[in-house]
Amino acid sequence: DEKVSSAMSRIRQIAVSAMIVVIIAIGLVNNLPGSAIKRAALPLIDPIALPTGLDQNWSVFAPNPPTRQEDVEVHVAMASGTDKVWKFPRLNPVFGVALSHRWRKFKESLLNSPRLRADFAHWVVRELTEPGDHAVHVDVLLRTEDIPPPGVWESGRSALQTLYSENLTGNR
């Protein structure tokens, strides 16, 4: 019985050590500069790295850190006179990593690919419209705020830009 307990303890130690090595290896590979080694390793480690949030690349902060916060929101005017607002989900920072990463990547696609905006706006309209109500107008807005450099305590400049606007009362 003591031998079995000792063997199980040894197996647990080996498993924990192996997990630590895998986590460190994933972190190291994700932070390698673009190279053949990194390109070859990413298909192997991405299935573990993406859902667990281990795909962090610290070079995102250097040499050019982000200089502004960007938020997309969608305003839908209803025939009843109400204005409904949709914003990207703010997910749990621990368990929502994989989903929030997907929303963040989708936001980047919206900003870089104007052809996606109409379909996205129509999807939001469907999400926000309840039975008996009718959407009459939709606006996809980009709200930005400059991020001040370290040591500056003033708020950054903010702006609001319309990415897409459509009157929904006519034929689509």
Principal-axis shape: elongated
Q: Count of helical segments? A: 4
Overall pLDDT metric: 85
**Computed CA radius of gyration, to the nearest angstrom:** 23 Å
Estimate the helix proportion, in percent. 40-55%
Beta-strand fraction estimate: 15-25%
How many strands, what sense, and barrel or not for the largest sheet?
A: 4 strands, antiparallel
Order of helices and strands: HHEEHHEE
Q: Strand tally, please?
A: 4
Structural category is alpha+beta
Low-confidence stretches: none
Give the N-terminus to C-terminus distance in angstroms: 74 Å
Q: Key features?
A:
172 residues; alpha+beta; four-stranded antiparallel sheet
Short recap of the structure:
The chain is of the alpha+beta class and 172 residues long.
Describe the structure.
- By secondary structure, this protein is of the alpha+beta class.
- The protein is 43% helix and 22% strand.
- It has helices at 2-30, 36-52, 97-112, 117-128; strands at residues 68-78, 83-87, 135-146, 158-167.
- A four-stranded antiparallel β-sheet has the order 2-1-3-4, with helices on one face.
- The longest helix is centred in the first third of the chain and has 29 residues, at 2-30.
